[in-house]
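[job 0417] fold request received: Sphingomyelin synthase-like domain-containing protein
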Amino acid sequence: MNQSFLDSNNQISILIPFNNPETRGFYSIIDTGDDIISSFKKLIKHPILTILDFLTSGLLWSFLYLITSLFINALFQAITDDYYIRWLSNHQEIPKSYTLPDIGTDLLPFIDIPYLPSYVLVGVLTVTFLRFFFTPYRTIILKRFCFLQGTIFILRSLSIFGTYLPSPVPCTTYNKQPLFIYAMKIFSGTRSCHDLMFCPHTAALFFCAMFWYHYIEKAPLINFKWCYKVSPSVNEYGYPLRFTIEKGIICIITAIASLLFVMCKRHYTFDIYIAAIISVLLFKLYHHYILHMNTRMNWFNAFLRWFEDGSPDIPELGMKQVDHDN
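[job 0417] inference complete; emitting structure tokens
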């Protein structure tokens, strides 16, 4: 069913359902190889045009946005640590290694593997990338992930700067370097102590889970066309319509990984919970908003139309004159 909007000129703006790419299952691997070969041929034949297209592509700028927001987050982490150190020095009655009570860390065993959340996240990101790389949605998912994760880092920067929390495990920071240098060290992997308002590992984990949940039936590895005719997997605007065994497995894996994050005691239970809620809501907000971005003309929608250029899951806008005399 088309969605429509009546404007002041008695014209109906109709959202035409998107043209979903043909579901080809494992044949998508061959299609991906053909696309890569075609891209190299285009680069050789038209190098300047190809490079300009890449430099003005949403994929490149979403990646740059992610890197920039990651550094901004590192800068705010450095500011937070520096302020917290000075605050503790003025409050000698507060122990330098005190922690807040947390029901998750009290009930669950402690896993003393400092970088386990990073290891888990790298594994999840790798599997997610490989799963969707051989589908028509590979570029779309990658740039949307970079954009959403970058937005998470911006939101997180403001939150950790506003409220300072002690580390769940003993962690002391004595930084005597300039803030910019310390921020660069954090950006390159040095752990800070007080960036605990919500967990970026959890946000990325839940983004991956949501991408699986939202796109897994748009680009299935096995094509059951007869099944889709009986029970459609997505509606005409791309939203999933059914809960499958694969989605159940994804939910279980995500829940287990979240518990592992709590057991590592690098974050409190509540900031893992908050990260999960924010990432899911941000994912749903973005994927709902882009379905209607062609219905309004403003600078943000203009940006999204450039950013989402070529995405097959965006409804087109059609116009139809309305005659009130009939």
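[job 0417] notes: The first strand starts at residue 3 and ends at 6. The chain has a mean pLDDT of 81.
[job 0417] exit 0
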